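ugh ok fine here u go
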Amino acid sequence: MREYKTQMEAAKKGIITKEMEIVAKKEYMDVEVLRQRVAEGVIAIPCNVRHTSISPEGIGMGLRTKINVNLGISGDAKNYDIEMEKVDMAIKYGAEAIMDLSNYGKTNTFRTKLVEKSPAMIGTVPMYDAIGYLEKDLLDITAEDFLKVVRAHAEEGVDFMTIHAGINRRAVEAFMRDKRRMNIVSRGGSLLFAWMMMTGNENPFYEHYDEVLEILREYDVTISLGDALRPGCIDDSSDAGQISELIELGALTKRAWEKDVQVMIEGPGHMAMNEIEANMKLEKRICHNAPFYVLGPLVTDIFPGYDHITSAIGGAIAAASGADFLCYVTPAEHLRLPDVNDVKEGIMASKIAAHAADIAKGVPHARDLDNKMSDARHKLDWEGMFEVAQDPDKARAYFESTPPADRHSCSMCGKMCAVRTTNMILEGKKVEFCSEL
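structure:
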C-alpha cells in the first residue's frame, strides 16, 4: 500500500515517486525541482494507478512540449482495427498522449485494449461516452449518471479526462449576452449546454465537482478542465464567453489542487496569430500557471484540408509563448474522421510545432538532434541525415525518388551543391564543372 493517492499528494509530502524519477531523467531536470513543481501544480504527471504499461511523461513548466493524438470511432466510422492502426502510428512517431474520443456504442472494450498496450498516456471525454454507455437519451441522463461514466473511465485506467466543469450558469450568461458567429463548437460543451437548457439545471460537473474530484483522486486521474466555450472561428476568439469560462477554470483549478488532484487547462481553438501570446499569458495568470493544453490554435479558417498546417503555425506560437501540450489537428479536420495517413500528417505537423517551440524556449537539449542533422549535412552524410530525421522513411523515399549521379549531393543542385563546393575549397581542392559536363 503506497503512502499517497496521487502524484501531487506525494510531492506535497516530499515523496519522490518512481514516475517523478522517470520524468526527471527524460527531461534533464533535477528530480527535487520536479517534485516541487508537481506539488505546486505547475507540472502534472498524468498516470492512472491502473495504467501499468505507461511510460510516464510530465507536462508543464520547464518541460518539453508534449503532443496528443485524437482517435476513436463514430456512428459513421466504427472500425476498431483501423483505430488500433492509428494507435500504432501514434506510438511509432512518439506522441506522448492518445485521446479516445469514441462516441458510439460500447467503447470500453477498445479503451481497455488501448490502456493495456499503450506506453502513451490515455485521455477521454466522459461526456462523449455518456449516451452510448448509459443507453439513455440526453434529457434522461441524470447528474448521478454522468458521475458513473467518470468512475467507469477511471477504473479502466484512463490517465486524464476532459471535464467541462467551467460552463456553468455564469459562463453561459456571458456567452448568451455576447453573440458569436459560430456559437459553441466543443462537442462535450454543446451537449452540456443542451442538457442545462433542457433541464434547467446547473452543469452537473460543476454542481458535483467535489464528487468528481474524489473519483479522480482515487485512481490518480488528472483533470483536464475543458474549454466548452473555446472559439470555433477566429472572429470569436478572446470574447466574453471564452474569458468568462477561463475565470471559472481558474477557481476550479485551486479546488482540485486542494484535493491533491492534478490539473491541466484546455484552451483555444481558432485564433488569429496576434492574439495567441496574450491568451497564453492570460491563462497562466488566471489559472495559476497550471499546465496549458491547446487545441490548435488554428490561425485561419479558410484552408480545409490543410488545417494540420494552420494548427502547426498556431501551436508553435502558443507553445513558444507558454503552452505546454498541443492537441494535433489532421488534414481531415472539419471534413471527416481522419484515416491512418491523416493521423501521420497530423502527428508530424504537431511535433514540428512542439519541437520548434522547445528550441525557442531553450528547453534543455532541444537543439541536440538539430545539431546532429547539421553535422551530417556538413559532411553530406545521407545515412546520418536519415538516422536523425523524425520521419526517416519519408526522407529516404524523397532522396531516392530522383537519385543523383553523384551520391555526395542531391538532384536539386548536383555538383553545384553549396556544401560540396565549400568543403572542397576548404580542403584545398580545385572546383571544376565544365570538365565534368
